[in-house]
Specification:
The protein has 229 residues and is an alpha/beta fold. It has ten helices and five strands, in the order E-H-E-H-E-H-H-E-H-E-H-H-H-H-H. The chain folds into two domains: 5-148, Toll/interleukin-1 receptor homology (TIR) domain (Rossmann fold, 3-Layer(aba) Sandwich); 165-227. It has helices at residues 14-26, 44-54, 64-67, 70-81, 98-104, 118-129, 165-179, 182-190, 197-205, 211-227, and strands at 5-8, 31-32, 57-62, 86-90, 108-111. Strands 2-1-3-4-5 form a five-stranded parallel β-sheet, with helices on both faces.
């Protein structure tokens, strides 16, 4: 019997999550979703933990609401702990907050906007059906529906990196002073979207919660930049 796909979502996105499950199951992809699949009288948390452990992968319906959901965060943490692959099915133009950034940075992503939803359901379903017994490992770009092919996020010009390797390493070291090991992931993700070195510094400074620490990071980064030959 094929292992199910665990669908994680926030209550705000419940309708879309259930529509996704209905579509996937109609195409032969079994799913587990709460509260539908929680046994009556069972302990909620225990059922969810058990379902994640038995899932072949987890699909996160990712939005501003799920970004702020403690329950979603716990489910993602559990999936990572159990080495369950995760696909972030992103339904809004939003990036993960620091609490989720660490867990989602190396996972699969599918941008599922702008609407309608069904073409994105179809693309996700095709991805899941490629090998029903095994989820792919490592980051990958999922195919984009044809009607959304014109939606392209700006990136740096190909062949013209905004910073040298030594500059990126320096920025990473300085950011790590405030954020720890996650700095490496943040620098790697922000660099392709930055318009230049100063823009990259501003993007990374926004990840620091404390205003005084943000100013200190920017001052240190700019001072280092001026002293770099």
């Amino acid at each position: 019997m094929q292992q199910p796909v665990f669908v994680s979502y926030s209550q705000t996105d419940r309708k879309l999550a259930y529509d996704l499950v209905t579509y996937l199951e109609a195409q032969g992809v079994p799913c587990w979703i709460a509260p539908r699949d929680i046994t009556p009288s069972a302990e909620w948390a225990a059922e969810i933990i058990d379902a994640i452990s038995k899932a072949r992968l987890l699909v996160l319906v990712f939005s501003r609401s799920s970004n702020e959901s403690p329950q979603v965060r716990r489910e993602i943490e559990r999936a990572v702990h159990k080495r369950i692959p995760i696909i972030a099915f992103r339904i809004e133009e939003v990036l993960p907050e620091r609490s989720l950034e660490y867990f989602l940075s190396a996972q699969h992503w599918l941008d599922a906007f702008p609407g309608p939803s069904e073409p994105y359901f179809e693309q996700l379903c095709k991805f899941l059906q490629r090998d029903p017994e095994r989820a792919p490992s490592g980051p990958a770009a999922l195919p984009t529906p044809e009607h959304a092919s014109a939606t392209v996020r700006p990136t740096a010009t190909a062949g013209a990196p905004v910073c040298s390797d030594s500059q990126l390493a320096s920025i990473e070291r300085q950011l790590a002073h405030y954020l720890g090991p996650i700095a490496k992931v943040l620098v790697k993700r922000a660099a392709p979207a930055a318009a230049g070195l100063e823009d990259l510094q501003r993007l990374l400074a926004a990840e620091i919660e404390s205003e005084p620490e943000r100013r200190a990071f920017l001052a240190g980064a700019r001072a280092t930049d001026r002293s770099t030959p």
